[in-house]
Fold each of these.
Amino acid sequence: SQTIHQWPATLVQPVGSPLSLECTVEGTSNPNLYWYRQAAGRGLQLLFYSVGIGQISSEVPQNLSASRPQDRQFILSSKKLLLSDSGFYLCAWSGSWAGSGYTFGSGTRLTVV
Amino acid sequence: AQSVTQPDIHITVSEGASLELRCNYSYGATPYLFWYVQSPGQGLQLLLKYFSGDTLVQGIKGFEAEFKRSQSSFNLRKPSVHWSDAAEYFCAQAGTALIFGKGTTLSVSS
């Protein structure tokens, strides 16, 4: 069966520090991968999605970036965190069909101090 | 642009009462629609999804949703709410990615 792993579960980082969040999927190949951010009272905002290795689409311009170095690995990064980057980050995967199920990781709670 | 609207930010329902959470989508003649639930600090769990066919969709935990094309709606319902149903509920529509509404927080009173 397919599983999605996301870590760390919680992270407290100072302003200006770098960030690296990792997400991996098991049990499937060539998944579509997504990063979402959930800020209090603002729902889930799509940040990046990828349909293949090295292919990244950005939905919101900001100081975050994403990379997909391997088929089932998706990384969210920042060179210098801002206070406004605090939030709950969720990774998800889906099949290539628009109506296929989307499965979410358990999330990372990031607090920038 | 594709968008999903959940008009109710917060709803309180008595335990045992019926529930309806509203959702309106804005794009597509044949939309792919989803309802997810999120408990505090947790990821998202899929309740049900609609692609085509029967407009009344059954999901997990006793939830159902009805797709109404004429109203561009996909409302979630449950006949009798349990205290454990208290959570945040998200309606979503699939396009190039999953686009979410802002969510409805459900509180259950005893």
Amino acid sequence: AQTVTQSQPEMSVQEAETVTLSCTYDTSENNYYLFWYKQPPSRQMILVIRQEAYKQQNATENRFSVNFQKAAKSFSLKISDSQLGDTAMYFCAFMKLPYTGANSKLTFGKGITLSVRP
Amino acid sequence: DAGVTQSPTHLIKTRGQQVTLRCSPKSGHDTVSWYQQALGQGPQFIFQYYEEEERQRGNFPDRFSGHQFPNYSSELNVNALLLGDSALYLCASTSRLSGQNPLNTEAFFGQGTRLTVV
């Protein structure tokens, strides 16, 4: 079974600053995906960024980037130039491969509440 | 292109009653997964449906059951409601036909149904 741990319940950052959200996971699988999802007050989960475990290069999406340390089973999210619209809950999630629908179950961490201050 | 739609958005039920929640997947998706998200927690996987059958199940009692229709829409039924069933219920859709293309690993979520049991 997989577990995902997010130990920081809350974080706060000044607008335009950079913030890093931490996530660790435990699995015996070798092939998997890791995700960061954002859940604003509207409740809808939105994919922020994904990382394939077989890729050494860290994923980036505009202001969002990850630091993926496979040996340490660590997957942190860095948000640069924080904006007020980044205020939300952020969830780290794991999905094992191969992806055939039957394996598309997501295992989530407890989440972290990020507040961006004006 | 319609995304994942869930109904109703909010629901209040009395302990012991039964409830049915509905989900229509994103156009082109054939797999529906249901998650329970308690307040302040990460989503927990309930079960997954494709080809009108339950394919995977999380650690939830038999009071939780589901159905998938030929048009890929799905229902989640909960019998004998308990106060602890109060949560946000999220539906997510994916496509098995996407193969192992990493770009198709994204699960699209609905805005959820907020169930309150009193």
Amino acid sequence: AAGVIQSPRHLIKEKRETATLKCYPIPRHDTVYWYQQGPGQDPQFLISFYEKMQSDKGSIPDRFSAQQFSDYHSELNMSSLELGDSALYFCASLRRSLTSTDTQYFGPGTRLTVL
Amino acid sequence: ELKVEQNPLFLSMQEGKNYTIYCNYSTTSDRLYWYRQDPGKSLESLFVLLSNGAVKQEGRLMASLDTKARLSTLHITAAVHDLSATYFCAAKKSSGDKLTFGTGTRLAVRP
């Protein structure tokens, strides 16, 4: 079965640079979530989109922005990168319905290293 | 604000033994999830528990939910090395989208 696709899988950036992470949800999934997981930490919710509109917002820094496009893929844009932004960034998707268990299916993650 | 706590944080088990991981959450949640994560890998969905008294089993893992106590458990039966991973519980409030994760339990099964 098709899974969530994230690209790139690994990314190395310098401080103060910008980065763009991409997420392609499972086909027919209409909701996308972004999570950040620091080393040895639990995943922290950043932001989510449903039908191309922001649906919830968590602890996302102002330096980060995200959007969902008409084909439902999503991009997380990160500017003025800091050392503390080094983490695994996960995208998850689901298809909303009245009978759904709302299980979020996670992608493989993008490992961002800021030097 | 929804808070989720797990214990223990680290669990070293001998193969063949049983053990339970506990997950407490602070406010009403309409969904409780269990995920498995291997080092550096993605989160794999194990169980979703929807109602009080719900019990689900898959192989050597069994999850249950007590909404009155705001407690979920993940019971491991006759552990095998392949179960070594980090296990996260996560809760979701009915009014929002996000999952709030517990701290994770790092399970190591030794021969």
Amino acid sequence: DVKVTQSSRYLVKRTGEKVFLECVQDMDHENMFWYRQDPGLGLRLIYFSYDVKMKEKGDIPEGYSVSREKKERFSLILESASTNQTSMYLCASRLSSVAGSYNEQFFGPGTRLTVL
Amino acid sequence: QQQVKQSPQSLIVQKGGISIINCAYENTAFDYFPWYQQFPGKGPALLIAIRPDVSEKKEGRFTISFNKSAKQFSLHIMDSQPGDSATYFCAASVRSGGSQGNLIFGKGTKLSVKP
């Protein structure tokens, strides 16, 4: 059973703080993703990574960075948290993105971040 | 052209009724159409998926109908139950490597099934 875990379910931070959100998957998946989920806006892709030390910007990367030093771990970093980054953050993983494949994407339970 | 438009935004159905959620897309290169189900406090999970070589796929009470010419697909939940109350996301992608293979999600439909 694939498991994607996120370090915190709820997090409260202050404006200007540096925030780290951690995600770990246990199925040796190559691809990992960070989304934010806001009411009425659905799931918006922040960053994704196809393999260790690789990263690519998604649709809304501004104000975020990521790190993938090990295959199983993908970190989302808010360099200087702002109130408009209050949101639900979802991590996901997928076996691979090889052309011709349809690989299911597995999501973690989410981290509800509040920036005061 | 990369968007997937989902409707309605919210839906209330009586127990035993049929829930229908619709999605439309523009990119004719899309060839994989999954639906994800998300319960409160949980991450989305794959519910059912279809490829454009078939017009319908059924798994239990859940059916995807696909209309390639209209570039539309829909989720039908038969005999809806209170336990089906969740947010449903449609998505689409192409069978391609790299970022083109990333899922494009609709904005979601919050379904409430009343007892």
